[in-house]
Amino acid sequence: PVLFAAVRYDIAGVLMLGYAWWVLDDPIPRGREQWATVAVGAVLLIAAYHAFLFIGEADDAVTSGSAAVLVSLSPLLTTGFARLFLPEERLELVGLFGLLIGLAGAVVLADPDPNALLSGGMTAKLLIVAAAASFALGSVLTRRIDSDLPVESMEGWSMLLGALLMHVLSLGLGESPATLELTPGIVASLLYLSVIASALGFLIYFDLLDRLGPIEINLVSYVAPVFAALSGWLVLDEVITPETAVGFLLIVSGFSLLKRRQIADELDRL
Q: Which of 47, 85, 221, 256 has the most CB atoms less than 10 A away?
């Protein structure tokens, strides 16, 4: 799984650096702060996050529901790291309450087996928590450094260096390129993940990180189960259960508490 992720970010990194050379006058990082930003992205947001996540999820004891709940800890972890490194972005009590309501909604939507969540595969589950913590810390430190490195350049260099780190880890784990089957389906999945989910997805993520800050942008992990449920309904004819509706309402309520001032301002303009 680590080798697949490394190849994915090889492709995404090359694409983003090519785009950076096209749109920027100077896509090469200059100075300590800009290279520090690239290092944070490469080590925490790309290499550590994906390596911990994929190794943890490869354990048969980890169900999809329990993995979804553990990944959903990211906004809470981001809030904790922000208290250390970004005190100006601390949440008020009402905002923290909204954060917890959103987490509750994500748990309801994931519908994990309590026994599977609390027992078995503990090492693998701790790796998934480490993945969420790596991403949370990476987003906070990126905001803390606040270098003037363009997003396109930061993303491209971070992906290539992060992919290199994952290649090294993959070799250490004994993974062989010979085991990577390149069937048409796998190639299509690899291209989709490289171009849409990685290159384009991270471009949007880093832009919003600069605008909104790490706490608000990492709330996206609460929305993922919503789209998973809707996709299952549209594509796989899965039934929308009452639990799904309750989880969705809890997430919306949590978002509303967090963005209460912005919502009030918009209503005043009507």
A: 47
Angle at 155 between CA 53 and CA 196, to 5 degrees: 70
Euclidean distance between CA atoms 209 and 133, whole angstroms: 17
**Which one is predicted more confidently, 116 or 48?**
48
HSE value, Cβ hemisphere, 13 Å, CA-based, for 247: 24
pLDDT tens for 203-245 read 998 888 888 788 778 777 777 666 666 776 777 676 667 777 7
Residues contacting residue 109 through CB under 8 Å, at least 6 positions apart:
68, 225, 226, 228, 229, 243, 244, 247, 248, 251
**DSSP character string of 127-146:** HHHHHHHHHHHHHHHHHHH-
- In angstroms, what is the C-alpha Rg of the chain? 19
Minimal CA–CA distance to 131: which of 35, 186, 59, 226? Answer: 59
Q: What is the pTM of this model?
A: 0.83
Burial of residue 199, with CB atoms counted within 10 A of its CB: 0-12 exposed, 13-18 middle, 19 or more buried: buried
